[in-house]
Amino acid sequence: MKKQEFIGILETEFNVGTHTFNTETVLTEIPDWDSMSILIIMSLVDEHFGVAITADDFTKIGTIADLFNKIGDAHFE
Q1: Contact of 66 with 3, CB cutoff 8 Å
Q2: For residue 52, what pLDDT is reported?
Q3: Which of 20, 22, 61, 70 could in theory staple to 16 by disulfide, Cβ–Cβ 3.0 to 4.6 A?
Q4: CA distance 21 to 7
Q5: pLDDT digits (tens, 9 = 90+) for 20-50
Q6: Mean pLDDT calculated for residue range 58-63
Q7: How far apart are CA 16 and CA 33, in angstroms?
Q8: Distance between CA 76 and CA 17 in Å, rounded?
Q9: Is residue 55 within 8 Å of residue 38, measured between CB atoms?
């Protein structure tokens, strides 16, 4: 999967317009961000990449780029 494809999945899941998010998007600035948002991202990452991310990891994950770093480049085309 390409990074832009996963960004598209996030945009759909968070019900925002296409091309709203990019790698510099700050997760806590996503509209209606709450603890459920973290669970959604954890689930999506596990489902699409088989990578387990914990709630504690989000203390170091601030942007979508940080999320991609946590997932690891080996998981992207």
Answers
A1: no
A2: 97
A3: 20
A4: 7
A5: 999 999 999 999 999 999 999 999 999 999 9
A6: 96
A7: 12
A8: 23
A9: yes
- Which residue, chain included where needed, has tokens 């996963």? 6
Residue 67: how many other CB atoms lie within 10 Å: 23
Taken as a whole, the chain contains a residue count of 77
How far out from the chain centre does Cα 9 lie?
A: 9
Give the residue ranges of DSSP H helices in the chain.
3-13, 35-49, 64-71
Q: Report residue 22 as tokens.
A: 């990019």
- Read off the tokens for 43: 């689930």
Tell me which residue of 27, 19, 22 sits closest to 57, measured CA to CA. 27
Q: What is the largest CA-CA distance in the chain?
A: 31
